[in-house]
Design goal:
Structural class: alpha/beta
Mean pLDDT: 91
Number of helices: 5
Order of helices and strands: EHEHEHEHEH
Shape: globular
Number of domains: 1
Helix content: 25-40%
Strand order of the largest sheet: 2-1-3-4-5
Largest sheet: 5 strands, parallel
Radius of gyration: 14 Å
Strand content: 15-25%
Number of strands: 5
């Protein structure tokens, strides 16, 4: 069990407003102390991670313990964001899980080659999404040992 800290931060990147709403609702069903932060594109992922733009000097900023990344987003897509995260020694230890509508084997293979820790195709039902979020959070925040903040 992961007893490193009580409160975890989950950074969720998805450009679809309905999906963000559903993930927020699904997270209410997860009975763990998790702070969920939402961004809408890969550029905002990097702004959040580097504390740039609207995140500069924010007192509410918390380094994410896990990043959920959609693939198809504007400005900077999930693949490009993943490349940036994995190329930075200060960020590369943060686990990144791809959560996307894609089922394409080419996307799955590419994401693993780029350093994704997991690839999950979004369920089509809300109940399925709740189950995925419960399982995902239990695995990453209760079972595995996450790297300490540096």
């Amino acid at each position: 069990m992961n007893y490193q800290k009580k409160n975890f931060t989950l950074l969720i990147a998805n450009d679809d407003e309905d999906t963000r709403f559903l993930v927020k609702e699904a997270m209410r069903e997860v009975r763990l102390a998790i702070r969920s932060e939402f961004v809408e594109n890969g550029e905002q992922v990097l702004d959040y991670l580097y504390r740039r733009g609207q995140y500069t000097g924010s007192r509410n900023w918390h380094r994410p313990d896990l990043i959920l990344l959609d693939l198809n987003m504007p400005r900077l897509d999930g693949r490009e964001a993943l490349i940036s995260i994995r190329s930075d020694p200060d960020l590369q230890q943060i686990p990144v899980v791809i959560l996307t509508t894609s089922h394409r084997s080419g996307d799955i293979l590419l994401c693993y080659r780029l350093g994704a820790n997991s690839f999950i195709s979004k369920p089509v039902t809300f109940e399925g999404l709740v189950e995925v979020m419960k399982t995902l959070c239990q695995y990453w925040f209760e079972i595995v040992s996450l790297p300490p903040e540096q």
